[in-house]
Design goal:
- The chain contains three helices and eleven strands, in the order βββαββββββαββα.
- The protein is α+β, with helices and mostly antiparallel strands and 144 residues long.
- The strands form four sheets. A four-stranded antiparallel β-sheet has the order 4-5-8-9.
- A hairpin with a 6-residue loop joins strand 6 and strand 7.
- The longest helix is centred in the last third of the chain and has 10 residues.
- InterPro entries: C1-like_sf (IPR046349).
Length: 144
């Protein structure tokens, strides 16, 4: 790989192209393809796909809004429900501050399908819907 460092939106320091078979500090997942970027200062490894996201994306799970790469210490992904309290570093996530919608890097790369079609286990297609806001609305009505 090149030994020249690159500046990426996901991290504040210059990162070196790197091959490492380990869990990424970016999305928290272990990927078989190990190409990525590494910051020696923070011992911080990101997968190539995570590191090369642009600062703004359009995502099928949140149509009509542009998601922006932001930094958070505590977060809950609105798609997979994963939450994390990052005590040692700031996690990068895509968000829409207008709608209070947050997507972690893994779900940004691999959005869930809109429809599941498995005739062996279910006799018709299953359409997935987001339930964001529904529980809060139901909870607030129950308290009134």
């Amino acid at each position: 790989m090149d030994s020249e460092g690159v500046s990426l939106p996901i991290h504040v320091h210059i990162m070196m192209p790197w091959a490492d078979l380990r869990r990424g500090d970016c999305c928290g997942r272990l990927e078989v393809i190990s190409d990525g970027y590494y910051c020696k200062t923070f011992d911080f490894f990101v997968h190539k796909n995570c590191g090369e996201f642009s600062k703004y994306i359009e995502h099928p799970s949140h149509p009509g809004c542009t998601l922006q790469l932001e930094s958070y210490r505590i977060w809950d992904c609105n798609l997979c429900g994963r939450n994390r309290d990052c005590k040692y570093f700031v996690q990068k996530l895509f968000c829409c501050e207008t709608c209070d919608f947050v997507v972690d890097l893994y779900c940004a790369k691999y959005p869930p399908p809109e429809v599941i079609d498995n005739s062996e286990t279910h006799h018709h297609k299953i359409t997935l819907f987001r339930r964001i806001g529904f529980e809060l609305e139901a909870y607030s009505k129950a308290r009134d």
